[in-house]
Design goal:
The chain has 364 residues and is of the alpha/beta class. The chain contains 13 helices and twelve strands.
Length: 364
């Protein structure tokens, strides 16, 4: 169809036009003045590519090994909460689309479909689980066990959320989940953020929930503990410094995700693509390195690989595609991005990921 989105930016514009205001602002917002939110994208545009020619790119291999599995291309779906705000099938629709396109889905602890529902719907799908460490350690332990039983093959520990960043759009809307939606993975915590919103301008229900339930005393001891209670590889998500990355690996993590939570936590934090080289150097091949935040084009993926990532994670584009076209929309968006990456590899003269090297990068 002539009006069907042909790139990820068009999916975003179409989604923002159709989502309910509270859902739209929850998905789109960043912390405070949203400087980091904008910088995550702008930093990619400041990077130029110095490409090769006559490089024989007639056959291209986009595959990459991550945590013992060969991924057909270097994209993982990032954990994003409350997908049923975008589409009635929510996380289940995304699971089906991800499986069809050869992509690993990272399930949010705050998903609106349970781990078990997703696993039953797509038993062969590749999935990881994103974990917060709650004040209730037995709940945290139980979530790990459920993730294992649901066929998840890795745990992503979110480490950048000792408290929730203030998102002023959510405060203005008094964000709360609408009737009929809940967080089934966290059912033992009660109604959580299903409570009615308070007066506009007050804290969102989500911020209040985090203050009550997520442990702000999270420390390296908790990473040791988490690694001790599961045989699954643990990725530490939210790392933007080399020293933290090295310490995570030394504490037993299987890798790190360079992330600033999509610009939703500490505003004016460094853009993730700018943080990536230092983190990759500190990990020095001892674990996986992924990066999220701002990826919208195949050239962005190419730049991330050149600067030391094994793969990128994408979050908001999945939500936009889900809101526009449900499962089919997510499949089409992923296919667009994969084709865009393959074309970028060809035009850069890089037939495989090993040939995507730092000398391709020029900082403007």
């Amino acid at each position: 169809m002539a009006d069907e989105p042909i790139n990820l930016f068009e999916y975003e514009r179409a989604a923002l036009a159709r989502l309910a205001p509270m859902a739209r602002d929850y998905y789109a917002s960043g912390a405070l003045d949203e400087i980091t939110l904008r910088e995550n994208r702008a930093a990619y545009d400041r990077i130029a590519l110095r490409y090769h020619v006559l490089a024989d790119v007639g056959v291209r291999d986009t595959s990459t090994p991550i945590l013992g599995r060969v991924h057909p291309w270097p994209v993982v779906i990032a954990p994003t909460a409350f997908m049923r705000l975008a589409d009635p099938d929510g996380e289940v629709a995304v699971a089906r689309a991800a499986h069809a396109e050869g992509v690993t889905q990272t399930i949010s602890a705050l998903s609106t479909a349970s781990l078990e529902e997703i696993a039953a719907a797509v038993p062969e799908g590749s999935r990881w689980f994103q974990l917060y460490v709650f004040r209730d350690r037995e709940l945290t332990r139980d979530l790990v066990r459920r993730a294992e039983a649901a066929g998840c093959t890795a745990i992503e520990l979110t480490a950048d959320t000792p408290v929730l960043g203030r998102r002023e759009r959510d405060a203005r809307n008094a964000f709360a989940l609408p009737p009929g939606l809940s967080m089934p993975n966290l059912a033992r915590l009660g109604e959580g953020i299903r409570a009615p919103g308070t007066a506009p301008g007050s804290d969102s229900i989500l911020l209040q929930f985090f203050a009550a339930q997520v442990d702000p005393a999270l420390s390296w001891r908790d990473l040791d503990w988490l690694c001790s209670i599961t045989s699954l590889p643990v990725l530490v998500k939210g790392v933007v410094r080399g020293d933290d990355a090295a310490r995570a690996i030394e504490a037993g993590a299987a890798g790190v995700v360079v992330s600033n939570h999509g610009g939703r936590q500490l505003d004016t934090a460094i853009a993730t693509i700018d943080a990536l080289p230092e983190v990759a150097a500190a990990v020095d091949g001892r674990g996986a390195v992924l990066v999220d935040g701002g990826v919208r084009r195949g050239t962005d993926i190419l730049k991330a690989i050149a600067l030391g990532a094994q793969a990128v994670q994408i979050g908001r584009p999945v939500l936009w595609a889900l809101a526009v076209g449900g499962e089919a929309g997510v499949r089409r968006m992923l296919a667009i991005l994969r084709e865009d990456f393959d074309r970028a590899m060809a035009l850069a003269g890089t037939p495989d990921l090993a040939s995507i090297t730092p000398d391709l990068i020029v900082q403007r």
